[in-house]
Write a structure and sequence with these properties.
By secondary structure, this protein is an alpha+beta fold. Helix content is about 35%, strand content about 25%. The protein has helices at about 5-20, 30-40, 65-70, 90-100, 115-120, 140-145, 150-170, 180-190, 255-270, 280-290; strands at about 25-30, 45-50, 55-60, 75-80, 105, 130-135, 195, 200-205, 225-235, 240-245, 275-280, 305, 315, 330, 335, 340-345, 345-350, 355-360, 360-365. The strands form six sheets. Strands 4-3-2-1-5-6 form a six-stranded mixed β-sheet, sandwiched between helices. α5 (about 115-120) links the parallel β5 (about 105) and β6 (about 130-135). α4 crosses α5 and α9 packs antiparallel against α10. The two termini are about 35 Å apart. The protein binds glycine (GLY) and manganese (II) ion (MN) (2 copies). Glycine binds near residues 199, 230, 241, 305 and 352.
Amino acid sequence: MTVPVDLMRVRHQRLQTRLTEAGVQAALITSRSNVTYLTGFDGSAGVVIVEADALHLLSDSRYAEEVHALDRAGLGVCGHVAPAGTGLEATVAARLQSLGALTVGYEPAALTVAQFDDLRTRTGGPSSALRWVALDAPVEALRERKDAWELATIREAGRRLSTIARGILTAPLAGRSERAVAALVEAELRRQGFDKPAFDTIVASGPNGARPHHRAGDRTLAEGDLVVVDFGGMYRGYAVDMTRTLQLGETTPRQREVWTAVLKAQQAAFSALQPGVAADAVDAEARRVLAEAGVAEFFSHGLGHGLGLEVHEAPRLGPRRGGAAGAPLEARMVFTLEPGVYIPGWGGVRIEDDVVMTPSGPEWLTEPMVEG
Ligand code: GLY
Ligand code: MN
Ligand code: MN
């Protein structure tokens, strides 16, 4: 990924403002996606230390070339490489200790208890001058609203994924196993320029469709099946995610009825979108349509999720939790709309597309279904 220099520096400034508001003078960023967001580095060993006036990327000697290139790129990232034979942990601890008496924020969701204990021991234990404060996901909050470069990348990814979806809808798939269909889809992802699948492709045929996250197995697709195909790709580091439910050959009126109800639920959710709308209200709209069709009890997951450097990230679109209204869906947020109906012993239907909220309303990022 090559994030433009000015946009990268805006990310840093926004984070530094949030850290000041949180009362910390430095932050240790260990979430891999957050390290990528702040530096462009996507290696397996990378830690960021954000200070008031600088941002440091620390890695180990396997990534020396990448770190030095980022250091020279003018992104506002200072690169450090742990010398061969010295662990990254020791290099991180030494940098933190050099800061003196500071309040340091850490990411509780991205540091194991063992890693945290080790770090505290290395930085002087209970008598250390460092004071640790758990951060409340400040980088994830920034990532919720995509910048112009991210939106352009995700739009292109959505176009490419839609091409694959069109191919799936017209391919002769009866007689192939779920596993073979998943392999075909994943080969198409590569052909369309994706870095890799965003998750193991789901192909759930016939009764297997009742399991929202069925793993593609040995069942052979047959005429008369509904087949849920859920596939996603990482494109220049960003995830897009679609589901199509195929009706193979002659389907029954009931299968067509459920399929149409799910499509109408997705369309109703899209129509309910406007900047600032509560995510739970949009979920409720999809549930209302499925209730009219008598199948709402079989919609067993939330309506959607944010997309970005991860395939599941904020915002969450789902029913209210504990009575609290859902977060508002704001401009520049990117998320899925994926209503589904899963009937044990019968099968399932899910239709999933990706959307960006703009200041004037929602836009599809993938090409939505219009009819059966
Ligand atoms: N494939 C996972 C999802 O749609 O969320
Ligand atoms: Mn999804
Ligand atoms: Mn999906």
